[in-house]
Structures are given as structure tokens and as C-alpha cells.
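User: Show me sequence and structure for the first protein, then do the same for the second.

Assistant: Starting with the first protein.
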Amino acid sequence: MSLNKPYIFIALLGLSAQVSAEALRDPTLPGKGYSAAGAVTQNQNKALVLNSIVSSGNTAYAVINNKIVSVGDSIQGVKVVRITPSSVSLSDGRKLALFQAIIER
């Protein structure tokens, strides 16, 4: 039993029509649960991430949220009180610490 080319083409066309646009979601769009840009910005303002610490003699700098700060500087309204080789103390009582894997070298 041999199938003609028009029958194969019609069968393939029918199969391809079953794929809906919902199944082909744009990967560059935000995922489900994304609300408004303002809500995301507010959450990001509360989170402080210690990226690294660099010390040279008596001077120490910390990189928090990809911004370089030293003792006395403020970031997001919180003052940097102390910088040690492995952590940063903030005026609101928080202490940001580096991951152990970064400290041990």
C-alpha cells in the first residue's frame, strides 16, 4: 500500500495544526507569578547581598549589591558599621557574611 505525496502532506499539515500558540511560550517573557515592576523593585531594595570584601592595610572595602562601600557609607539607607575579612556589620543589626567556600582558599 503506497501513500501518495498529497496525502502525506495533508497528514503532516494536520499534525502541525495541533500545536497551539500557548505551548510555544516566549522564553524571554517573565514567568508566572510576575506581577508589576514596582513590587519587584521593593523586594530588591530590602535584600542586601555581600558579593566580596577587599582589605588593604587599615582600609577595607565591601561590595554589596555590586556597589563598593566602606565603613561609614550607606547603602539603601543602612550604614556600614564594620568590615571584617569575612563579614560586614550594618547599623540595623544585620550581619552579611561571605560563603565559606569563598573564605577558604
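Switching to the second protein now.
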Amino acid sequence: MTAKSYGTVDVERQKQMSGLEFVKGLADGTLPLNTIAQTLGYDVVEAERGRVVVAIVPTGAHLNPAGTVHGGLTATLLDSCMGLAIQSALDKGTGQTTLEFKVSLLRPITPETGLITAEGKVLNCGRRIGAADGRVTDAKGRLLAHGTTTCLVFPT
């Protein structure tokens, strides 16, 4: 496994890869993760066509004023895994971007929760629109949050 780096992948380089090649490169470290992953501390840990998993161990740096992990972290994890799941289903020369997403927070997350994973799965991916859902779970498999997204699919 290659050590993870952070940044962006040049658009011309992205055009040469299928969506699955791109997302697998993020997971195996041959491509840099986006800088929000560095800022928040999450990692892309699994990638296959139509399915992507990101993971993080929440810390005190992620807390809201109430002392639990801010919902924005959970939303970011879901937006990332669901969008990348759609990306993994795209051909070369095709990109995607989030049009809308919905998140439902079911249980509080704290640093004591430990490792959490967000798994995104494609529901449908057409020529113009992709839809995915996502689940955030703890190490015991408890559902902490879930979400859905709709993404615009476009030629790059």
C-alpha cells in the first residue's frame, strides 16, 4: 500500500481513467485524497464498482458545542462515499457532482464511539443522473446515520 497524499488530480489525468480506476487510486494511495479528507482526517478504504467505504476515528476536533461529533462531519462522510460510489460506476471522460443530498442522524457520535465507516452504494446511474444511498455504522455494526444523494452526471 502506498502512503496517502492529499491534493487534487489534474483534470486531464482524470479523463484518462474510468471512474472505478480513479476511486481505486484514492483507496490504494496511488492518487491523492482531496484536502477536506486531510482536514477532517478520513480515508477512502474500499472501492469497487458501485460501492465505496470511507472511515474515520472521530476526535475532540470534531465536536459541536453540545460535546458530540458535529453533524457536518457525518454529512461530509456520506456525501463523499455516495458521490464516489457514483463516480466508480462512470466511464472514462465522465464526471459527477452532487445536486442534493439528505442525511438523517440517528445516534450520537462521540470520540468514544471509535472507528466509524460510511458506505455508499449506487441505486441507479444513468447518462445524466446518478442516485446512491449511504449508511454510517460503528464497529459493532450499529446504524448511526443514513443518507441519499442525487448527482448530476456529465462529460468532462
